[in-house]
C-alpha cells in the first residue's frame, strides 16, 4: 500500500453529527484548509467497547487541541443516525454523551478506503460478490497540516487503542518544526532540546 505521508489528504463530503446533537449534510474536510490543523481519526463501530474510551479520551483533551488550533474529526462506517443515537446515551450506560467534535458517517466506505484503513476485502466468485470479513475501518489516525498535507499517520488493529498524549506530542513536534526549522529527535517533548537539520557531519564522514 502506498503511504499517504507528505501527500494531500483526500477530501470528503459526508453527513456528520456536530456538537453531539446536530445532523448536518455536506460536512467537508476542505473547510479547514488554510485555517486549522486537523486530527482525523477512524474507529470501527458505534456501540462497542474500546471505541468509546478513545472517543472520550480525545474529548477530555479538547482544550489542549484547541490551544494548538487543531480540529478533531472522528469517522466510522456507521450512519449519522447511529452516531446521533450513541451520542444521546450517557457514558455510564455505554454511550458517548458529551462529545462535541464532529463525527462523520462513512456509510459508503469511500472515506475509509481513500485513507487506506478499510478492513477486509471483496471477492468475486462466479459473479457473486462476497466479503472476507466485516468492511469497517481500522483505528487510523492522521495529522493534517494547514495546507491539507498529511504529516503523521498511525493505523492500529481493532483491539489496540491509541494514545492521545502521543497524538498531542506529534502536533507539538510538527508545529515546533514549522516555527523553528529544527527537527525533533526520539521521545522529544515540548520544551526539550531539538536538533538542527544538518547533514554536513554525515557528508564529511563519507568524504573522508
Automatic annotation (TrEMBL):
CDD domains listed in its UniProt record: PRX_Typ2cys
Key words of the record: Oxidoreductase
Domain Thioredoxin, residue spans: 3-176
InterPro entries: AhpC/TSA, Peroxiredoxin, Peroxiredoxin_AhpC-typ, Peroxiredoxin_C, Thioredoxin-like_sf, Thioredoxin_domain
Database matches in PROSITE patterns: THIOREDOXIN_2 (PS51352)
Family: Belongs to the peroxiredoxin family. AhpC/Prx1 subfamily.
Function: Thiol-specific peroxidase that catalyzes the reduction of hydrogen peroxide and organic hydroperoxides to water and alcohols, respectively. Plays a role in cell protection against oxidative stress by detoxifying peroxides.
Xref: PANTHER family: THIOREDOXIN PEROXIDASE, THIOREDOXIN-DEPENDENT PEROXIDE REDUCTASE, MITOCHONDRIAL
Name this polypeptide is given: Thioredoxin peroxidase
Organism: Blattabacterium punctulatus
